[in-house]
């Protein structure tokens, strides 16, 4: 049972901002729940109607739910770089907190948390009675160990160290001495070097899965230690994965009011490739119960099947970027700002949205902060001037250079890449298109000199900028390195009040535009279809599938 907790002083401020129309419902819920206000309390504080709760009593047990989704090989969770990977290990690995579609952050393995007024101290209270599936108790020592695991910058591809930079020793690249203190078996305190408004939402992101002390990424399928209700029975990348209910584990969620679920005997993920036509064909043939997502013209076709549609406005997007550190014939062409600017000038983002995503979204401004983000600053778009694009390439002495634009062979990035390549050619630039199957593209996604990558929604804009554009971060595929930008990111992470942070966000957004780091043409509305009778499968803004919520009605 959760104990009453003091309300952070900023929570009342955000309630006033909501009442004055300065925050949306989702923005408000994200902000106040990240400060430790329970979800029910956040709804009450904002004068919002309580969220509807699913009726779980009608769900049948002893069933298998089949999901269309690309099946990828598992990775050590802190190095995972695709949501599809996490959606499989979510069966047995859980998170300290969970980010929900309404924007709220609620405790999972944490029961609650408190944030000091200066946002430098976080007190984390563990949920009582949680056990690992080998019988071990889940304790504060596990949480302290997880922060050491997450904060290790020496692990290649570990994006969690960047999310938790306020806890990392800059000299050693490890968890800073004194940053994490175990108070008792159910209580941990975090002492930050500087305030970090993205800390709690960062703990909900898919690389933040909590692993056992005996976790080994090489044997995690054979020895799946976790706290969740399912176990992996099969995984064949590119084909299928199967999770089965762990009948030998007393899952904590089954005893906790407001959680419940995990009623399915099995969950099967089936890989039909990247062509959405094959996804729809599987739905028509009755081979699946649920789509991972649906796109383009296939949305209306799935509606016509009588399948139920779920949609959400998000900060999900695609990004065209030249890697500023990738070399071709000994030269780094995209280190030249004139070359990057030429690409940006040649592409009309509105056309990219229409041709690449059938208009199911809104036009973006080439800085990777979305209007749905609480800290978005409206600074306007960059110029579209194809006539000026070739002149810049001539000025750079690269008018004969042939850009090779690489994309995955899926419907989204492939069509967007085709549209962008056509516009670059119309501006007089030379372009070669390369379309790769998933296995090849995923293996090298950060290394291509010029490519388009799909990026998921994150709750905060500053969280996105810190992950993708701060110098040296594992997910900084553009190779952007700007000391002034890094300093401003640090400042923005330390500001909790909306208007003050928005001023810095405007400067950060302008830097990305002026340095022509990316072409980020549109923000996606996301769609999912399920056959009638599937429950708990609403589209999540970050493509998360909360497996314990899934069910089937007779």
Short description:
With 554 residues, this protein is an alpha+beta fold.
Descriptive terms for the model:
5-stranded antiparallel β-sheet; globular; 17 helices; 554 residues; alpha+beta
Radius of gyration: 23 Å
Largest sheet: 5 strands, mixed
Strand content: 15-25%
Instruction: Say how many strands there are.
Output: 20
- The helical percent reads 25-40%
Number of helices: 17
- Strand arrangement within the widest β-sheet reads 8-9-10-1-11
| Unreliably modeled segments | 54-59
- What would the principal axes of the Cα set say about the shape? globular
- Average pLDDT, rounded to a whole number, is 92
How far is the first residue's CA from the last residue's CA?
33 Å
Q: What structural category arises from helix and sheet content?
A: alpha+beta
Question: Can you offer a commentary on this structure?
Answer:
By secondary structure, the protein is α+β, with helices and mostly antiparallel strands. Helices cover 28% and strands 19% of the residues. The protein contains 17 helices and 20 strands. The chain has helices at residues 9-19, 25-34, 39-45, 83-89, 140-150, 160-163, 199-202, 276-284, 298-304, 337-346, 349-357, 386-395, 411-426, 438-443, 461-468, 483-493, 498-514; strands at residues 64-68, 97-99, 105-107, 110-115, 121-126, 180-184, 187-191, 230-236, 240-245, 266-270, 290-291, 308-322, 361-363, 402-408, 430-436, 450-455, 518-519, 522-530, 534-535, 551-552. The strands form six sheets. It has a five-stranded mixed beta sheet, with helices on one face. Strands 12, 13, 16, 17 and 18 form a five-stranded antiparallel beta sheet that branches. The radius of gyration is 23 Å and the shape is globular. 52% of the residues are buried.
